[in-house]
Amino acid sequence: MNKYEGMFLLDNSKVKPDAAECAAVVSDAIKKHGGNVVRADRWDERKLAYEIRKQKRGTFVLAHFEAESANVAAIRDDVNLNENFLRIMIMRCGDEFPTFLTAVDYEAMRPRREEEPMMGDPAKGDVLEEEV
Amino acid sequence: MAPNGPTRQKAKDKKKRLKKLTEKAQCRWCKGLKTCEEGLARIDWKNVDQLQRFVTPQGKLFSRKRSGNCSRSQSLVKAAVKYARQMSLMPYVG
Ligand SMILES: [Zn+2]
Question: CB A118 to CB B63 under 8 A?
Fold first, then answer.
């Protein structure tokens, strides 16, 4: 059994963007192939960077689970054929699961711009590279 | 004859200059850390705000020169941005 972190993008028109229901849909997909779900929660409901199957918004669900490597391939294949899912990303974790962070947590740990200017300031004459 | 006076000062300056040149340049991930792993572990493809600082407003990756990343962190950032694009968290274009 390996530890995996999976991000699932659900179709809002097929699955209600409701926290409990989304988590259940993802949990079922993993459990169906003998995976052991440690935690599955709605990550965020947001506007997509680009349209997928005519959908402009989608619901992201993050899941931490344990499974055999062969079963992970089965989960991936199954999800790719399932109309409820728009995208899927499964990553192998090391020995430990990383901290479970939702989009809200990421928003909270965003550094404020005035404290730490990350990029060069064009006003100070820093060169902004323009690639053609 | 032992060097003293201006000669010694010159040697000191040279040493200083050399130190500045050979000092390890550190990117923002590894800065001030004993091992790079701690810093590189902070690169997360789900953290869109973090990755947004390494791409142009159009969504294109900054060069290493522009982002100030070291070779390892740039490679990880690059991969992270690509994962985020696949999941529609970040745009491929525009
Ligand atoms: Zn570095």
Answer: no
Q: What is the DSSP letter of A126?
A: P
Structure letter (DSSP) for residue A110? P
Cβ atoms within 10 Å of A9's Cβ, excluding its own:
24
CATH of domain B26-86: 4.10.640.10
Q: Does A126 touch chain B (CB under 8 A)?
A: no
Nearest to B83 by CA among A89, A119, A114: A89
Question: Does residue A82 sit in helix, strand or coil?
Answer: coil
pTM for this structure? 0.76
Cβ contact A95:A59 at 8 Å: no
* Structural domains of chain A, with CATH: 2-111 (3.30.70.60)
According to DSSP, the residues that pair with A88 across neighbouring strands are A8
Mean pLDDT of chain A: 83
H helices present in A16-125, as ranges: 19-31, 69-81, 103-108
pLDDT at residue A92, rounded to an integer: 92
